[in-house]
Amino acid sequence: MLEKLDLYRRMPKDEYRQLTDKYEPRFAELQRKLKAFKIPVLIIFEGWDAAGKGTLINKLILSLDPRGYKVHPTNAPTEDERLRPFLWRFWVNTPIDGGMAVFDRSWYGRVLVERVDKIVGKKIWQRAYDDIIAFERQLSEEGAVIIKFFLHISKEEQKKRFKKLRKSPATAWKVTSEDMRHHDQYDKYVQAIEEMLSRTDTAHAPWTLIEAHNRRFAYTKILRTVVQTLERKLSEKEFEQEQPGNTTPVTAEQESASILDQVDLNVSLDRETYDEELKYYQRRIRELEHEIFLKRIPVVIMYEGWDAAGKGGNIRRLVRGLDPRGYEVIPIAAPTSEEKAHHFLWRFWRQFPKAGHIAIFDRSWYGRVLVERVEGFCSEKEWRRAYRQINEMEMQWANFGTVLVKFWLQIDQDEQLRRFKERESNPAKQWKLTEEDWRNREKWGLYKAAVDEMLLRTSSSRAPWHIIESNNKWYARIKVLKTVCKMIEQRL
Amino acid sequence: MLEKLDLYRRMPKDEYRQLTDKYEPRFAELQRKLKAFKIPVLIIFEGWDAAGKGTLINKLILSLDPRGYKVHPTNAPTEDERLRPFLWRFWVNTPIDGGMAVFDRSWYGRVLVERVDKIVGKKIWQRAYDDIIAFERQLSEEGAVIIKFFLHISKEEQKKRFKKLRKSPATAWKVTSEDMRHHDQYDKYVQAIEEMLSRTDTAHAPWTLIEAHNRRFAYTKILRTVVQTLERKLSEKEFEQEQPGNTTPVTAEQESASILDQVDLNVSLDRETYDEELKYYQRRIRELEHEIFLKRIPVVIMYEGWDAAGKGGNIRRLVRGLDPRGYEVIPIAAPTSEEKAHHFLWRFWRQFPKAGHIAIFDRSWYGRVLVERVEGFCSEKEWRRAYRQINEMEMQWANFGTVLVKFWLQIDQDEQLRRFKERESNPAKQWKLTEEDWRNREKWGLYKAAVDEMLLRTSSSRAPWHIIESNNKWYARIKVLKTVCKMIEQRL
C-alpha cells in the first residue's frame, strides 16, 4: 500500500498560493459553523519520525481561532494513565461538542510502537484493534467527525532528515537514540503500518495517506481533505435538520418472556443469619480489597433498580467494612452541561477507577436505555445503538482485567407502594420521596419493558447482570456482598 | 504544647456507647442539611504514623451516606503534581458545595515531612505557611467549614505499636523503613509539629489535638468536635438567611485619579514597522517557548479588556509562531454548574499549566471584580474580598516560579462605537456582536470605575498589570508580543 505512493510529487509555489487562498478562509469559517452545529472534530496525525507532523499541524491550525481547538501530543503513558485501560487517556480528551482536538500521534501507538518495540504482547495489540474500531465508531455515531492522516516518507528521506537535524546544535536534540533505533527497524514498521491502515480504514473514520516529502504538497492535501470532509458533514447535518423528526412514541413492547417476571421475590433471610453473614462477608470483602490493591486489579460495581428498591442501604452495607481510601461511591444524576456536551459514555470513562481501586456506581451508563429511553430524552436510534456501545465499553474494561459487577435490584409494585407510603408517613424519611418517584411509578410498564430488554441485550459471560431479589432487604444485602466476593475471588 | 496533653485518658465502654448513640445519628442528619445548605466541608487528619488515622477515619464516616463524601489519601506527589504549585492537587480536590472531603494527611506535608526530611529547602517551607493560611482563609470566606485534627501519641506508644504490627505477617508490610526513620526522628518532628500547630491555628480553621492512645476516647472526641462545629456553622447560616439582604447598589465611585484616563491612546505603528517587528517577535517568542520548556517554567498570560478591544486578533498574533503542543488558549465564559458549586478560583487553579507550558486566558479570574461586580452576580462583600484572594493566588503562582503576564486592552468609547458599527455592517463579522455588547456599553461608567479599582488593587511588582493602548491594533499586538518576550527573558 505504502509503496504505491508517489512520494516525489512537488507543487509549484503559485499553485500552492492559489490553493491556500482558497481553502484557509473556508477552514476558519467552518470552525465557526461547526461550533454552531455542535459538531466535535478529531484530527489524528500519525506518521514516521521526521515526517513533519509538528510543522504541518502548526500550519493547519494557523487559520483557526485558538479558542476553539486543542492540540494533544501523545507521549508514553504516565503512571496514572497506565493504571487505566489504554483508551482512557484519549476518552477523557475527546473534544466538547463544537470543539476540535488535534492528536499528534494517538491511540494507534498501541498497534505501532508498542507492538514493534514489544512493549505489549501480541494478544494485547491484536485485541486493541477491536477497541480502536469500536471507539471511533462510537464517537462518530454520536456525531463526531474523525479525520486520520498518515504522513509517509521513504527510509532514505528519513535518514537524510535526521542527518540534517543532527548537524545543527539547535535541532540535534530532536533526534533521539530511540528515533535512530526506529529508523533501523523501518521495514518492520512498514508491515505494522500497512496492517494498521487496512484494518482501521473504516467508512466513519477513513485514513488519508499523505506524501510528505514535499511540504507544500503535503500541507495542501491535508488542508483540502479537512475542509472537504467538514463541508460534507455540515451539509449532511443541515439536511438532517430539514427533515421532520421521526421519533416514534415508545410503547411497552411484549418481549416473548419477561426476565423480571421469573424472579422469585419471596426469598428472605432471618435476622440471626443476616447478622452472622453480614459480619462474615464484610470482613471477607475487606481482605479482598487489600488483595486487589496489591495485585492492581480495578473493580467496578454498579447498581440499577426500581425507586425504593434499597440501593442506598445496600451500598452502605457493602462499603461498611472497606477502607475508604480504596473505594469511591459515584452517584449518577442528570448530566451537567459539560457532560451533555460529550459522548454519553464520556463521564463514565472519566470515572474509571485506578487499577487496585473500587468504583461503586449508584445508577450508571444504563440510564440511556432506561430513563432516557422511557422519558424520551434521547431518540430511539440513540438508545437502540446504545446497547452495543455499552457492551463494547464493558468488554474493553473487562479486557483490561476489570472485575465488573452489575446489579439490578428487583422489587414488585406492591412492595414499592408499601415503601413509598412508609416514607411519606415517616418524617425522618420524607426527604427520600419525591414527586418524580410517583410519576415514574405510573410508567411501571414502560420501565419494565426497558429493563427486560436491557437485561437481555447487555448480559454476557464477561459482564453478566445479577438480579437481586430485594423485597427482603436482608436477603438483598447478603446476596450483593456474596456476589461481589465471589466475582473478585474468581479473578484472583 | 504537645507535652501538655494527658495521653492516658481512657473511656469506659458504657460512656462510649452513650456518646456514639448521641452523636452518630446527628452527624448523619447534619450531612443532609449541609447538602441542602450547600456548605462544603473539609476534614483534615494529621498525626504520627500508627496513631490510628485510617481506623478513625473509617469509624467516623460509617454513619454517613457514602454518596456524599470522598476520602483523599495524600501520598508523595506524582510527576503531574510536581509540575504545579504544591497547593494545586488540593485545590482541584476541594469538595463541591454540600459535599465532604476527608484528607488523610494533607497540605501540611510540606511543613512536616518535606521539611524534616529536607525534601524542600527552608525558604520554600517557610513560604508555604503563608500559602496554607491564605488557602484555608479563602475557602472559609466562601463558606467552607474546615476541621483539622492532629492525632498525638508518645514515642514509646509508637514504638509499641510498630512492634505489634511487625509481629503479624498480615500487618508487617504496614511498617516501612521510612516509618522507622521517622520514629528515630521523633523529637525533631515534635518541633516541626508544634510550630505548625501554633502558626496555623486560625479562627476559621482551628486545630483540635486528639489524645490517641485510647481509641474510644479519640473517636468520641473527633465525633463530638465534628458534630458541634457543623451545628454551629448551620445555625450561623440559618441566622444569615433570616437577615434581610444587604446588597447596596453599585455606583460609579470617584477614584482620586483614574488610571485609564492617563493612558495615551494616540500611539500607533505604521505597516512596515508592524510587519517587521511582528516577524521578529514571533520568531523570538518561539525560541523562548522552547527555553521555558527545557527549564520547566510555567507561563500564564491573561487578557482582560473592553468588548471589541481586539483580544481575539491579538491572541492569534501571539500564538501564531508558537508550537501548539506548548500552549493552550483558555476562553473563560460564564461558569458551568459544576464550577459554580466550587470556590470561584477553583476553575482557574484547575487550568494551571504544567511547568514548561503556556496557558493563555481569554478573560479570567478578574471576572469577579468586573462583570460579576457590575452586574450584581455576587455580593459587594464577595467582590471586595476577592482583591485579596486574587493577589494571594497570583503570589502563590509567582512563588512557584510562574511568569505571569496580565494585560488590560484599553480603547476609548468612540473607538468601541466605531468597531461595533463596523461589525454590524460587515456580514462576515456580525457573529462577533451581540445584544449583550450593547448593554455592557451603556454601563461604561460603572465598568470604568471597576477597572480602575482593579488596576489599583491588584498590580504588584511580582504580578503587574500591563495596559495596552489598543485604538491602533498594530501597536497593541506588538506591545503585547514585546511585553511577553521581556517578561520571559527576565525570568530566564
Question: Could you explain how this protein is built, in words?
Answer:
2 copies of one chain form a homodimer. Chain A is of the alpha/beta class. Chain A folds into 2 domains: 2-242, P-loop containing nucleotide triphosphate hydrolases (Rossmann fold, 3-Layer(aba) Sandwich), CATH 3.40.50.300; 260-491, Rossmann fold. The first copy, chain A, contains 20 helices and 10 strands. Chain A has a 5-stranded parallel sheet with strand order 2-3-1-4-5, with helices on both faces. In chain A, strands 7-8-6-9-10 form a 5-stranded parallel sheet, sandwiched between helices. In chain A, helix 1 (13-36) packs parallel to helix 10 and helix 6 (122-141) packs antiparallel against helix 16. The two termini of chain A are 45 Å apart.
Specify the overall morphology of chain A: elongated
Q: Classify the beta-strand content of chain A into a percent band.
A: 5-15%
Q: Order of strands across the widest beta sheet of chain A?
A: 2-3-1-4-5
Overall pLDDT metric of chain A: 91
Kindly provide the name of the CATH class of the largest domain in chain A. Alpha Beta
CATH architecture of the largest domain in chain A: 3-Layer(aba) Sandwich
Q: Return Rg of chain A in Å.
A: 27 Å
Order of helices and strands of chain A: HEHEHHEHHEHHHEHHEHEHHEHHEHHHEH
Category by helix and strand content of chain A: alpha/beta
Please count the helical segments of chain A.
20
Largest interface: A-B, 35 and 35 residues
How many domains of chain A? 2
CATH topology of the largest domain in chain A: Rossmann fold
Identify the quaternary structure here.
homodimer
- Helix fraction of chain A, binned, reads 40-55%
Total DSSP E strands of chain A? 10
Largest sheet geometry of chain A? 5 strands, parallel
